[in-house]
Write a structure and sequence with these properties.
alpha+beta, OB fold (Dihydrolipoamide Acetyltransferase, E2P), 7-stranded antiparallel β-sheet, 4-stranded antiparallel β-sheet
Length: 345
Amino acid sequence: MLLIGGSALALAMVAGFIYWDNSAHYENTDDAFIAARQYAVTSRVAGYIASVAVTDNQHVHAGEVIAQIDDRDYKTSLEQAQAQVAAAQANLENTQAQKLVQQANVEQAKAQIEQAKANLVFAQEQDSRYQTMMKSGSGTIQEAQQYEAQLRQQEATLNTDEASLTAAQRQLDAYGPQIASAEAIVKQDQAQLDQAKLNLSYTTIVAAQPGRVVQLSAGDGQYVQTGSNLAMFVPDKLWVTANFKETQLEHMRPGQPVSLTIDAYGGRTISGHVASVQPGSGTAFSLLPAENATGNYVKIVQRVPVKIELDDVPSDIALGPGMSVVPTVRTDPTASVWESLRDLL
């Protein structure tokens, strides 16, 4: 009997050591939940919902239509904006064409001045010649007076042409601000056109990424304001937030493999890996952190959130935020005694 009892005790001690050694390679917790960056699907424009293309809990791909808002008013606004841009562009082009015409007028006025200067030089020479001839007696006073009058006429013509050039140049300079104003109107109308295009595109509400539509509240014929919630969206990108005790973190590092048991699927397991360990306990980042500077203090082991990313999720498993899992992290990569015996057998 003593031999049997001793053998049983030894066997129990060996089994206990093997269990302890194997457990020392892992850390687990049942304080873990599926997490995601879920967000509200909202309307960016106001209007009546023409159609809803999805149902509750439906999976959608990126770019897939979720709902359509009646776009007739926004199409009309777009056409009006297009007409305003066309009118503003036509006004700009007309002003630019007028500037070109005025530039031609300035060049013509300059040419007239050059011609007037040449005529003036000729008139000065003729006047000087006949004045000399009159004084020498070879010319008449009438001829001298006639060419003097022509000289005065050419001087007046030159003055008139110079005044015309000055006026034409001022008109040309005035087109600079006019064109700048016309260009500003085109830009303003173009901005309104771009906004009209955006508003029209906002009437089609699409999924920004793959995921599931949940808590759908939108319905056909419903009027929605800008910013109204139509549904909640849960992206396919999920992870696990596991709250480990701080005493379990000594050997836990990013990249370590994790086996996750899913409560909702009868203990079925999926694989993952440690992504990161939060630098602080969960209570340290709460809205009202615990204040321990009091006379009565009881030490409590703190929980530290650990982010675990999922490696692959079978298509027949539908996970969602808040679902419970039990993660087991392999913190020691060396083989345990049990694993060594199992491999030998």
